[in-house]
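Blinded run. Sample ID left blank on purpose so nobody reads anything into the name before looking at the predicted structure. Input follows.
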Amino acid sequence: MLTTTRYTVRAMTEADIVQVAAIEHVSFPTTWPQTAYKRELSNRLARYLVLVDRSKLAPTVPAQTKKRGLLGIFRRSEETPQTSDYIVGYVGVWLLVDEAHVVAIAVREPYRRQGLGELLLADSIDLALENQQETITLEVRRSNESAQALYEKYKFLKVGVRRRYYSDNHEDAIVMSTPPIHHPSYKEHLDYLRQAWERRWAGGS
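Blinded prediction complete.
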């Protein structure tokens, strides 16, 4: 796991959903409802990590107002608990039979281009290693060359194409996959990238 004094990566909880959904909303053309994240957190195959900026607190969100029920009686609507941590990014991973699949990775706009997406990717690889997965796969838009370059840095190879995969504009998805992540050569490469990341980013974070 990559280390930094300012940021920490931890498992996502229900209290993080409001902020994660907000990050997703500005990062992707199509988004999930918050109820989908609640289902994911109870899915035994799913693992979600969030990236916390420890130098900031989450903004206070007013409590929900009361709503009138069928009989005219006011009742308080169900509230989602909210963390005081300031969430700046997240990654979702599904653990399949022997393959980890990255389903989403996103960082808040002001925090991009600071190595934080890479931090999340590296920690998702660590998660896959800890859960004895053999490889990691993901889909990426054909036009997203910067993301493809990051994945290639971690030895993801282009192994296929899903035609018209994205519903918003029918863009193709490039399918990328790692070689076996438990192989000594891959672990050696991962250690090298961890050290390079910490030299570049951790000192000033």
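Unblinding after everyone has recorded impressions. Residues 60 and 84 are 8 Å apart (CA to CA).
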